[in-house]
Design a protein that fits this description.
This protein is mostly beta strands. Helices cover 8% and strands 42% of the residues.
Length: 352
């Protein structure tokens, strides 16, 4: 392959800082296709504006979501086992405070049904330890989006033996939830009535450390799931999950944590650290064949902040970070002294 047609590498992206696809199309020597340039302005990664500080120390949010009904950010708390709303000035107000929750990781908003879903795990870093103990808790709570009142609480642990770290969650159009387990090679399904089942168990999801993580539901009927330990991206059909496949892409996104789907053909992967690799970046991917294959289009380096997840709000892309890894790795005595405030940072925009 000649240099005129060779794809730009992630190393070259980091050397030039934030790449926008518009800029890539302007560089003729990169040899991008006309189709690629026609879609150049869908996602632009560029850190803009002043970061917003969440004014509640030691909250340690893992996931950021957007509640379009109330035009507010929602964040989960790994340390407090709760969910907070964040206003435009960074003020945090309690939305869900369920004593059964331990560390809240993934959250998901069902605006149509007025529901808020929360994933609860235990890594020994919460002020609300679970009865099950570290690496044994695996639960999902469903709450009224307006009042925070509990609707369902579902124990997933009996569905799969061994250790658990339920982590990511995504909702389909019928109100069903799909939940990843980072310590068990399993994706669970919880229907809108609170009935839980194993959606898919596959040894390709297994590995050292934290594995399955961020997940999104594609409107064409499949999941896209990232495996944090090795950076693989999987495509899982909803109608026949056994037909899962690894998305064919030259790069691996080690540390992949959060996924943001933009339209049908663009995906942003928020990655932090895993397996000795510190990615600490957002990666913009695109696919022209229904995510059988994909290509890396842009990279935004975020620095040593351990970003976890992102969200799209009114055409702008945001990530959240608070060096959550320091909380998880600290001793109980050290945790009591941690007072880091979380940061919400705009990292790009999307034109739909």
């Amino acid at each position: 392959m000649s240099s005129m047609n060779r794809k730009p590498s992630a190393r070259r992206a980091s050397a030039h800082g934030a790449w926008t696809v518009r800029a890539l199309c302007a560089v003729a020597t990169l040899g991008l296709t006309a189709m690629g340039c026609a879609r150049a302005e869908v996602v632009t990664l560029e850190r803009t504006g002043q970061p917003m500080t969440v004014h509640r120390p030691a909250l340690y949010p893992e996931t950021i979501e957007y509640d379009s009904r109330s035009d507010r950010f929602l964040v989960s708390s790994f340390r407090e086992g709760a969910i907070y709303a964040v206003d435009g000035d960074g003020g945090a107000s309690l939305v869900v405070d369920d004593p059964r929750l331990c560390s809240v990781l993934g959250i998901a908003v069902d605006a149509e049904r007025g529901r808020l879903w929360a994933v609860s795990s235990d890594l020994g870093a919460s002020v609300k330890p679970s009865a099950a103990g570290p690496k044994n808790l695996a639960a999902v709570g469903v709450y009224d989006l307006s009042t925070g009142k509990a609707i369902h609480y579902v124990d997933l642990a009996p569905l799969s033996p061994g250790a658990h770290l339920v982590n990511g969650i995504a909702l389909d159009s019928a109100g069903n939830a799909y939940v990843t387990d980072s310590f068990s090679p399993t994706i669970y399904k919880v229907d809108s009535q609170g009935n839980a089942s194993v959606f898919l168990r596959d040894e390709r999801f297994a590995g050292e450390g934290i594995n399955l993580n961020g997940v999104v539901v594609h409107p064409d009927g499949y999941l896209l799931v990232v495996k944090k330990s090795d950076g693989s991206l999987f495509r899982v059909p909803l109608a026949d999950p056994s037909r899962l496949s690894r998305v064919d892409i030259a790069e691996r996104f080690v540390g992949g944590d959060g996924l943001v789907l933009v339209g049908k053909r663009d995906l942003v992967v928020v990655a932090n650290q895993a397996a000795g690799v510190a990615s600490n970046a957002a990666f913009s991917l695109s696919s022209e064949d229904g995510w059988s294959t994909a290509r890396l289009r842009a990279v935004q380096r975020l620095g040593d902040v351990y970003p976890t997840t992102g969200v799209l709000r009114n055409g702008k892309l945001y990530v959240i970070y608070s060096k959550l890894n320091e909380l998880i790795q600290s001793s109980p005595e050290q945790r009591a002294r941690l007072q880091v405030e979380a940061t919400i940072q705009q990292i790009g925009s999307a034109a739909l």
